[in-house]
Amino acid sequence: MKRVRLFSGKTILFVMLICHGVAAQQTGSPIFSPWKAGYLDIHQINTGRGNATFCILPDGTTLLIDAGAIDPINWRDNKPRNNPILPNDSRQPGEWIARYIRRVMPVKQTSGIDYLLITHFHDDHVGTPKHASRAAAGGYKLSGVTELAEFLPIRRILDRGWPDYTFPQTLRQDSIVINYIHFLENRKIPAERFVAGRLNQIRLVHEAGKYQSQFSIRNLAVNGDVWTGKDEDTRHVFPDLTGVSANQQPNENMCSAVMVMRYGNFDYFAGGDIQGVLPYGAPAWHDVETPVAAVAGPVDVQLLDHHGYADSQNGALMKALRPRVFVVPAWAVSHPGPAVAERLFDASIYPGERDVFVTQLFPEAEAALGPAAAKLKPETGHIVIRVQPGGTSYQVLVLDDADESMRIKAVYGPYQSR
Ligand SMILES: [Zn+2]
Question: In the chain, which stretches have pLDDT less than 70?
Answer without folding.
Answer: 1-28
